[in-house]
Amino acid sequence: MSITVRIPTPLRTLTEGEDEVSVEGGNVAQVIDALEAAHPGLKDRLVDDKGVRRFVNLYANDEDIRFLDGLETPLADGDTLSIIPAIAGG
Amino acid sequence: MRHRRIESIVDAVGHTPMVRLRSLERETPEVEIYLKLEYANPGGSVKDRPARQMMLDAIADGRLTKDRVLIDSTSGNTGVAYSLFGAALGYRVQLVMPENVSQARKDITRAFGTELVFSDPMEGSDGAIRHCKALVEAEPSHYFYPDQYSNASNPKAHFLGTGAEILEQVGDRITHFVTGLGTSGTMMGTTRRLKQHSRPITCVAVEPAQPFHGLEGLKHMGSSIVPPIFDPALPDELLPVETEDGWDMSDRLAADEGLHVGHSTGANVFGALTLARRIGRGCVVTLAPDRGDRYFAPLRWEKHYEW
Ligand SMILES: Cc1ncc(COP(=O)(O)O)c(C=O)c1O
Questions:
Q1: How far apart are the two ends of chain A, measured CA to CA in Å?
Q2: I need a surface site. Which of A24, B58, B180, B210 has the fewest CB within 10 A?
Q3: Per-residue pLDDT of chain A in tens (90 residues, 90 and over written 9)
Q4: What is the ipTM of this complex?
């Protein structure tokens, strides 16, 4: 189950500048754990002990995971998980 | 001033009210805390001030003419302001925004006849800046590109307006001024005016504590394209605020003060309260850049993402 994860600019310091990384996992939670294993520090930016941080937007393909099954949202081989940044100044 | 009769909506900018935050002062009895309500501007945000100034200055010296299209990159609030004044003054406006700006901002700007161009959501606001620059470079004579990040009229609006008004409102008591950094126009212009005052005023810049944050409108300078108008030597202090603290403060302002504000206001007020606790005695002023209704998320059956 190879999942493509799209990394926004402010998190690329944790992925050696890569804007896309591939990890294994059958749902969003597993993909986040795999991300943490490959790029330590990423998990903390995305989730806290209550789940996905309130301001973090995760999209499974084109759908906000809030409107799916949250961290339990299933992902299949070839799917994309996008981490969308907030809008900065201006 | 707000009850006067005016000739055009362009004249309705500024002279915003300042409200005392009594519920917060209970935690810091010797410190007065004031919030200047920039959402009372006609376009609903602080960005009416710089947008108006950039347009009027450019019209005055011939950079903005009717045969050119005004284009800029914006997270939304500056775009709403350009669109409103463009409609009122008769200039065409085109905006570059990251695809993931809220539906409200897209709808509001389009209502004024503005044309929207979307940039890659993964590249954030810096992606919008680069996309906009590329469009202008391809057709320079077609556009007027104010570039709010490098335009001196942006801080000038706050020097002439925001800063001067704060002194009119609380010049006899203010000891500290706090506000967040986006383009940094508010911080730069207001601080320059406050520093001219006869009594010393400490000016503190709030910034998101993390590069990846949820304080819309604010920039984490260390990880972004630094705006040319930003002078890092001007603020007396840089105060990092966590997204969660800003969000919680926005909720608290709605529940306890009847102020439904955006998250950058929450961050500003959290910064003001942090400072108030630390100084123990004084008068802290901060700003509410916009209202909370700009950030309502679409409901499941309303949303439609194209990217
Ligand atoms: C909601 C909001 N807060 C704060 C700011 C920051 O203001 P400035 O650009 O003057 O630094 C902006 C705009 O940039 C904004 O839209």
A1: 40
A2: A24
A3: 799 999 998 899 999 999 999 999 999 999 999 999 999 999 999 999 989 998 899 999 988 898 899 999 999 999 999 998 777 656
A4: 0.89
Q: Where are the alpha helices (DSSP H) in chain A?
A: 28-38, 42-46
Q: Which residues lie closer than 8 Å to B304 by C-beta, 6 or more apart?
A: none
pTM listed for this prediction:
0.93
Binding site membership of A89 for ligand 1 (Cβ less than 6 Å):
yes
What are the structural domain ranges in chain A?
Answer: 2-85
Rounded CA separation B241/B206 (Å): 7
* Domain A2-85: top CATH class: alpha beta
Q: Is the CB of B264 under 6 A from ligand 1?
A: yes
Q: Do A90 and B210 touch (CB under 8 A)?
A: no
Angle between helices B243-257 and B263-279 (to 10 degrees): 90
Residues of B with CB under 8 A from a CB of A: 73-78, 97-98, 100-101, 121-127, 148-149, 181-184, 210-220, 223-224, 227, 243-244, 247, 263, 300, 303, 305, 307
